[in-house]
Amino acid sequence: MAANNSAKKIKKPAASGNGVINFFKELKAEIKRITWASKENVKKATATVLIFCSIYVAMVGLLDVGFKNLVEVIFK
């Protein structure tokens, strides 16, 4: 059984000094493979997010003012 364990050992590649350089080379290659959205799609998505965020901020602000006034009326 011990002989089987020693036979199954996997050799790890020796650590080279340029591991960081290889990482960035591979990163650059992966970034080139990405299919980026068109400028128009990005603009539409950004506008949509900003509009919904503005609506949400307005709703939360109105609820805050409403609850503040309600609390003032209750505890007056």
How does this structure look, described?
One of its GO terms (cellular component) is plasma membrane. The chain crosses the membrane at residues 45-67. It is found in: Cell membrane; Membrane. This protein is mainly alpha-helical and 76 residues long. It has a domain at 41-76. Helix content is 75%, strand content 0%. The protein contains three helices and no strands. It is elongated.
Number of helices: 3
What helical percentage do the residues reach? over 70%
Mean pLDDT: 87
**So what's the overall shape?**
elongated
Poorly predicted segments:
none
Q: Sketch the major β-sheet.
A: none
| Percent of residues in β-strands | under 5%
Radius of gyration: 29 Å
Order of helices and strands: HHH
Task: Note the main attributes of this structure.
76 residues, mainly alpha, 3 helices, Protein translocase subunit SecE, cell membrane
Short overview:
The protein is built from three helices and no strands. With 76 residues, the chain is mainly alpha-helical.
Topology (SSEs and partners):
Elements: H1 2-7, H2 19-33, H3 39-74
